[in-house]
Amino acid sequence: MATISVSGNKKIGTLRKEFNEQFPYLRLGIYYSYMRETVAKGGTITNIDNDKTLASVRRGDSGGTISISGNKKIKSLEQEFDTAFGLYAQVCYTTKEGKRYYTSGKDDEKTLASFNAECEKNGCKKGEWK
């Protein structure tokens, strides 16, 4: 499995597509950091436009690079997006019944590769990065 390199000049759509190619049963949601509060209150949020680069939407005092590989824990990936870019990231999946969820709790302790395999085994639908 290849490592995905993430820097400020990467378009969000490119990142989401690369993520979905590596982990076909998962999706990567990228949101402005203030959306975290909306989720906590049970509200609905929308992804940042796929044509924008991470540098164009990141928090002003942030910057850096991260790498995504199968052995990275979900919680680590989400935390790295917050630290490096000031963005709220969520690993998502869709059940076989079509219900969409963000990972949380014990699932955040799993690696991307193991959770992707678990989703495949459980009949989850392949993610669509768009």
* Separate helix tally: 5
Instruction: Find the structural class using helix and strand composition.
Output: alpha+beta
Q: What is the makeup of the main sheet? A: 3 strands, antiparallel
> Which sequence of SSEs, written as H and E, runs from N to C?
EHEHHEHEEH
Number of strands: 5
Q: Characterize the overall form.
A: globular
Poorly predicted residue ranges: none
Strand order across the largest sheet = 2-4-5
Instruction: Give the mean pLDDT.
Output: 89
Cα-based radius of gyration, to the nearest Å: 14 Å
Instruction: Provide the helix percentage.
Output: 25-40%
- Provide the β-strand percentage band: 15-25%
Structural description of this entry:
The structure is a single chain. With 130 residues, the chain is α+β, with helices and mostly antiparallel strands. It has one domain (4-121). It has five helices and five strands. The chain has a three-stranded antiparallel β-sheet with strand order 2-4-5. The chain has a two-stranded antiparallel ribbon with strand order 1-3. The radius of gyration is 14 Å and the shape is globular. The two termini are 22 Å apart.
